[in-house]
Design a protein that fits this description.
The structure is a single chain. This protein has 701 residues and is of the alpha+beta class. It has five domains: 1-224, MFS general substrate transporter like domains (Growth Hormone, Chain: A, Up-down Bundle); 264-379 and 576-665, MFS general substrate transporter like domains (Growth Hormone, Chain: A); 381-472, Sandwich (Immunoglobulin-like), CATH 2.60.40; 475-570, Domain of unknown function DUF5300 (Immunoglobulin-like), CATH 2.60.40; 668-700. It is built from 17 helices and 22 strands. It has a four-stranded mixed β-sheet, with no helix packed on it. It has a four-stranded antiparallel β-sheet with strand order 9-8-11-12, with no helix packed on it. A four-stranded mixed β-sheet has the order 18-15-21-22, with no helix packed on it. Helix 11 (322-344) crosses helix 13. The two termini are 39 Å apart. Keywords: Cell membrane, Glycoprotein, Membrane, Peptide transport, Protein transport, Symport, Transmembrane, Transmembrane helix, Transport. One of its GO terms (cellular component) is apical plasma membrane. It is found in: Apical cell membrane; Membrane. Residues 681-701 have a biased composition (Basic and acidic residues).
């Protein structure tokens, strides 16, 4: 049965792929946060385990391909490994239920080891499942087409890629929202069980849909595992070549011809084709090393940016959705507009040229990321070195104040109810201060510890000129776009301060609270209780990543008056500045990824496709391992420098690849196959028993 000229079975395969990708990317979207906040791992360990898991997911396809080709066939492999996969997702979901080991019901798991063990088992099952079926699903889709349906097959791979991205787009938007819900039996927590549970349910749906189409599939019988045969053939050729290394043996055209004593010509010819393509794969992992940092480095970059898009607040981890959104737009545009235009210009844009362009673009995307990083770095606060002190002055009085730092280091005037920025001094040079406000003057000998930030609060009240040193124990800009807030009580009586849900406790007159963390982009209600009287006010919006000191100046008849003093400015670089780098990287992915799959398919004999598929996915695994190595080995303290390093590495690899591609000659595997078929027919005519002999020889291999 067919539909729009496509086999009907294709639609089941595409729906199945959509659900499976939703399941995988949904789980992956919240994985790092799960490691960090639930399992309480630090950033480095979380990132390392994240990339290790991704690498594992792309290593297991080799296993899947072997099982499918030599034992179960693609259909049964997909079904059985999907079951393993579904169990893995379910285990993952269970591992994140904190009530599982929370006997004392205090809201945090008592036995974290149980959760770690369960989630590792879950992740291993998922890696086995997702990796095992990966080489089978797209190849199984390719199997559904007839020989003459090249155009449809090529269009199928594009639609296939689209369904992958539709699945990943929806899940990258939905799963973080699910995670943000509160749920739990005894205590309310972030809802990881739901965030992992929905992907598990979708995996189950994916399995049901796939089995539902069972009647319609064209199922190709497993032809014995070709990978094992190929490896044996290569091994034998090398051994044999080594045995005959002396001069008296005639050279052979290709080193693989040394296997001809034991293996038939057809297998040797096919192996040559495969090796030719695999050789071209060697530089490709570098592309994936950059590409997969969207989930780690680029997301961390977004946490230092401003996510206010007017009506909506974008969370840093939701920026990743830019990639699938763009893919869904770009794949059809590139297919229907860009490639035909290039063709019109009489440029022969071969698959290998596309891949080269893809690598170049990805390297460009990291240059863009580095430029954004430089802009971000400019807005980051500078903290004092070990032998420096930073001082900021807040004038809490009604008259202006003038402060001289002696010996003649600096002289500042501060208006009433105003504050200065931080001023940096060499701690050893600071000896004394001379404070004048109204008509009073005070002297103070300074003894500050080095390497810290301090606030000097000055107040001229009727009777006296008071001043007080406050230690600002903020040593870094708040993470994840959160804000730090503290209060100073500028009233004569003690007060109790609450902001949002957070209580700052009781503050004596002219004393300060500790800094507390608040989520970015929100406005909270400040409530002050003074002598059992309530005053309240909605705070201003603090943006993302700022630190503020809020001075409580007046609380009477329910009205509250405050002044804001900025200690660390909010993130000023807008998250939208990440869109160019995502756009460039997506263009790179469209020309690189879609082409790579198609090219591999066109250059290999039909029975070798699974080998190439596995090889292609292996490049992704190696790419993730490269991230671990480069990020671990490069002692670059500056993030922008690391981006530039990755861009430079990929550019170098891109040039090497361009040279390799230049010397590559395209082949048509079908022609070569046809030649062998022809030869065999002729031989059978001459020697009818040959077939029997060949079958015996094959079975002994």
């Amino acid at each position: 049965p067919s539909c729009f000229g496509y086999p009907l079975s294709i639609f089941f395969i595409i729906i199945n792929e959509f659900c499976e990708r939703f399941s995988y990317y949904g789980m992956r979207a919240v994985l790092v946060l799960y490691f960090k906040y639930f399992l309480q791992w630090d950033d480095n360990l979380s990132t390392a385990i994240y990339h290790t898991f991704v690498a594992l997911c792309y290593l297991t396809p080799i296993l899947g391909a072997i099982i499918a080709d030599s034992w179960l066939g693609k259909f049964k492999t997909i079904v059985s490994l999907s079951i393993v996969y579904t169990i893995g997702q379910a285990v993952m979901s269970v591992s994140s239920i904190n009530d599982l080991t929370d006997q004392n019901q205090n809201g945090s798991p008592d036995n974290i080891a149980v959760h770690i063990a369960l989630s590792m088992i879950g992740l291993i099952l998922i890696a086995l499942g997702t990796g095992g079926i990966k080489p089978c699903v797209s190849a199984f889709g390719g199997d559904q087409f007839e020989e003459d349906q090249d155009k449809q097959r090529s269009r199928f791979f594009s639609i296939f890629y689209l369904s992958i991205n539709a699945g990943s787009l929806l899940s990258t938007i939905i799963t973080p929202i699910l995670r943000a819900q509160e749920c739990g039996i005894h205590s309310k927590q972030r809802c990881y069980p739901l965030a992992f549970g929905v992907p598990a349910a979708l995996m189950a749906i994916s399995l049901v849909v796939f089995i539902a189409g069972s009647r319609m599939y064209k199922k190709v019988k497993p032809q014995g595992n070709i990978m094992v045969q190929v490896s044996k053939c290569i091994g034998f050729a090398i051994k044999n070549r080594f045995r005959h290394r002396s001069k008296e043996f005639p050279k052979r055209e290709h080193w693989l011809d040394w296997a001809s004593e034991k293996y038939d010509k057809r297998l040797i010819a096919q192996t040559k084709m495969v090796l030719k393509v695999l050789f071209l794969y060697i530089p490709l992992p570098m592309f994936w090393a950059l590409f997969d940092q969207q989930g780690s480095r680029w997301t961390l970059q977004a946490t230092t940016m401003d996510g206010n898009f007017g009506a909506i607040q974008i969370q840093p981890d939701q920026m990743q959705t830019v990639n699938p959104i763009l893919i869904i737009i770009m794949v059809p545009v590139v297919d229907a507009v860009v490639y035909p235009l290039i063709k019109k210009c009489k440029i022969n844009f071969t698959p290998l040229r596309k891949i080269t362009v893809g690598m170049f673009l990805a390297s460009l995307a990291f240059v863009a990321a580095a430029l954004v990083q430089v802009q971000i770095d400019k807005t980051l606060p500078v903290f004092p070195a070990a032998e420096q002190s930073q001082i900021k002055i807040i004038n809490l009085g009604t008259s202006n104040a003038s402060i001289k730092f002696e010996p003649e280091l600096r002289h500042v005037n501060v208006m009433s109810m105003d504050s200065t920025d931080y001023m940096t001094f060499e701690t050893s040079q600071l000896q004394s201060l001379n404070i004048t406000s109204g008509n009073k003057t005070k002297l103070d000998n300074i003894k500050l510890p080095g390497g810290k930030r301090h606030t000097l609060a000055v107040k001229d009240n009727e009777a006296d000129l008071v001043f007080k040193w406050l230690l600002d124990n903020v040593t870094s800009k708040p993470e994840e776009g959160n804000n730090l807030i503290r209060f100073i009580n500028n009233l004569p009586d003690p007060i109790n301060v609450t902001m949002g849900e957070t209580s700052f406790g009781n503050l004596a007159s002219l004393s300060d609270s500790n800094y507390e963390l608040f989520p970015g982009g929100r406005q909270d209600k400040i409530t002050v209780v003074r002598n059992s009287m309530n005053c309240s006010l909605t705070s201003k919006a603090f943006g993302f990543g700022s630190a503020y000191t809020i001075v409580i100046n007046e609380c009477s008849r329910g009205n509250l008056t405050v002044t804001y003093s900025k200690d660390i400015s909010p993130n000023t670089v807008h998250m939208a500045w990440q869109i160019p780098q995502y756009f460039i990287l997506t263009c790179a992915e469209v020309v690189f990824s879609v082409t790579g799959l198609e090219f591999s398919y066109s250059q290999a004999p039909s029975n070798m496709k699974a080998v190439l598929q596995a090889g292609w996915l292996l490049t992704v695994a190696v790419g993730n391992i490269i991230v671990l190595i480069v990020a671990g080995a490069s002692k670059l303290s500056e993030q922008w420098a690391e981006y530039v390093l990755f861009a430079a590495l990929l550019l170098a690899v891109c040039i090497i690849f361009a040279v390799m591609a230049y010397f590559y000659t395209y082949i048509d595997p079908n022609e070569i196959e046809a030649q062998f078929d022809e030869e065999e027919k002729n031989q059978v005519k001459k020697d009818p028993d040959l077939y029997e002999k060949k079958a015996e020889a094959d079975s002994q291999m």
